[in-house]
Structure prediction request, 900 residues.
Amino acid sequence: MKKIYLNPSDMPTQWYNILADLPQLAPPISPATGKPATPEEMLAIFPGPILEQEMSAQRHIDIPEEVLDILTIWRPSPVVRAERLEKALGTKCRIYYKYEGGSPAGSHKTNTAVPQAYYNKISGINKLTTETGAGQWGSALSYATSIFEMSLRVYMVKVSYFQKPYRKSFMNMFGAEVIPSPSNLTNAGRAELERDPQSHGSLGLAISEAVEEAASNSDTNYALGSVLNHVIIHQSLIGLEAKKQMEIGGDYPDMVFASCGGGSNFGGIAAPFVKDKMDGKKVECVAMEPISCPTLTKGEYTFDYGDVGKMTPIMQMYTLGHDFMPPAIHAGGLRYHGDSPIVSAMYKQGLIDARSIGQLDVFKYGTLFAKTEGIIPAPESSHAIAGAAKEALACDERGESKSLLFCLSGHGHFDMASYDAYYEGKLEDYSYPEEEIEKSLRSLPKVDLD
Amino acid sequence: MKKIYLNPSDMPTQWYNILADLPQLAPPISPATGKPATPEEMLAIFPGPILEQEMSAQRHIDIPEEVLDILTIWRPSPVVRAERLEKALGTKCRIYYKYEGGSPAGSHKTNTAVPQAYYNKISGINKLTTETGAGQWGSALSYATSIFEMSLRVYMVKVSYFQKPYRKSFMNMFGAEVIPSPSNLTNAGRAELERDPQSHGSLGLAISEAVEEAASNSDTNYALGSVLNHVIIHQSLIGLEAKKQMEIGGDYPDMVFASCGGGSNFGGIAAPFVKDKMDGKKVECVAMEPISCPTLTKGEYTFDYGDVGKMTPIMQMYTLGHDFMPPAIHAGGLRYHGDSPIVSAMYKQGLIDARSIGQLDVFKYGTLFAKTEGIIPAPESSHAIAGAAKEALACDERGESKSLLFCLSGHGHFDMASYDAYYEGKLEDYSYPEEEIEKSLRSLPKVDLD
Prediction:
């Protein structure tokens, strides 16, 4: 069976919350006090129902009817047997991919944008702020706020704002206001512009700007597209559907691959399989990250800020240090210094594996996938393709035949410039930036958990 | 039922050839002699199996196994009930769309690119030439030639070459060579460059260049993405699938809408429904064309060249005259002076209807569709959306409730610049260019059918 569809009526109606099955995570810490953040501090930027999910120990959480209704515009997403890729690799492994690129914004990000907009709306909030790097998350949230007739301001990392004008067009089309960051609308932005008037911006700084605006306006909340627990919970749909589909296809994956930046795409597909693993099933989930930003494979498990401006709660996670500025690789969605506390805990517990990969391999296998399977992948997603493809070849060398599943988290229709750069030979493999990371890890915050 | 899928195993295994059910069409006429083209003349640029289909009177034609195998990478395509669009319009009509944008190149063009590449390959041809305007057809054929390991040279209208660099990147990625037209590689290109060294090019001229190269090299054939009979036959899959899907959904369309440039998308979805109409069923198929290039609604049914350079066979069709140069509207795929002989004959026979529409309405309903259904449509496809939406509103005024089906022939991910232009108020409604058409219709070729 080449493509495995689920009917909308067979779509899961509950999210899976892996917090119920993990040892309790450390609470988010207030950057102001160094002590666990109070509900009041969190409610300044998040609505009640989102905070509740963030702390929930409930294993299964009902998806509201209104959210399901919108998700079924593009869900369930297909699982596809990558027969032509297998043939091109000459592998005896079975390779499947779960394709999230059919969503309105072209990636898995819409899965959490819709419930986040919904929970804010029913909590009386009509205005959201957020940040975006490559533009995927800003696009997804602009679609969701458009559906619920809310207003949205997106702080877009300045270098992307000018390099990816069509992502800006996308957000404008769905009614969002897009501001290049650093901007002079916030203290964080003004400080950076004072330091360097030509600053290109960074994801961490754009987060600071968006959080600052939400925290200082009572009618405005903030939404984040990755990292936080509720985001991983919303993305669990990917793994829940994939499990059903693999069962329909009469197979079960020995290994599951997904790219990992903040962790929402990886956590989303992995969590339901990690639950299987805890229940004794044999399955290995592998987070694929860029060599140039190797948070899990080379970072430290500790407490750190989520942003450069130290505005966000401090979280226990794998981090390269909040000051870490990765080289400008094209997979903008994976250039984050930290990692989701849930994904970090799973890694710390030995429940998942992580591997890093250079961008030449990423583009090599990404273009092979395009030519064989007919979908141009986002460079972020190509990390997962490359992970699965290299594993397949390694299996062949060892004389093994495995079932490999990966998440194709988005299409690359807005990333053609990076393919041009690849074909023009302009991309190089950055080596692991050891000194940068060591330096950055020296400025971790102090935390008082008692 | 919101989305109606067909399993790949339920995909039609034969194309429908409406030539079997229409009065015999006039043969293609040689531009050299003014008499019916000889097989030798046609075989200079097309392979035998394609020519056979071009002239076939066989009602159902088997789809080769190798072609089916590739088509099922993205087919069958879904039929979707546009519930949110209906709600936004406040209509009592039921609106469905058949979505062709999930294909590798993002439009219906891939449906014919694959069999055309295949038939050339099995005829011993390893090199193709073609032209592309907006880039959809060039992208589709580059995908298909990549699959069959053939080489491809695409003459891309110069103004698009520079305005749509990512379409060029797409074709390069799949191994095609992209040449801005006019080029100095052909006599037709050199003549135009002599006339105007700054020439922006046109689709008609790019066709001349591609045909000239194929005609003067025995190892090279030419492939066309629309107009010709075999293309309409290949695209009949759209209508055949849609009929099955509407039946599964328990409905049958009162009206079917599709945009119409050369006619492949319209002819593809319409032909199987026109057959129903000939068999006594009540269904109305409407070809939607731009006011600025109103081939069916304002053209003449006569014999004309398919290109500016008078290289192609002369065909009996609706035409605005091969010299007609439409204003630069953004739906580049609809800027063609002629129309498919099959579609022209259906219109002449009263089997279909045609309407023209201005681009402000096209973008108005296109953006409404994006916001409600979550897919950014290609501007070409938005002609169909607008046709169906305006019909729905007209039905409501008349107190009728109809079932309306349209073909969403492609996504607009590579057309964001035209959405920017719309939101910036830079688009205008061109009026019907009456004098231009009158002038252009004065230079029709002489034809001798005896």
Remarks:
- Chain B has a mean pLDDT of 94.
- Chain B touches chain A at residues 2-3, 5, 7-8, 72-74, 84, 102-104, 106, 143, 146-147, 165-166, 169-170, 172-174, 367, 370-371, 373-376, 411, 413-414, 416-417, 419-420, 423 (CB under 8 Å).
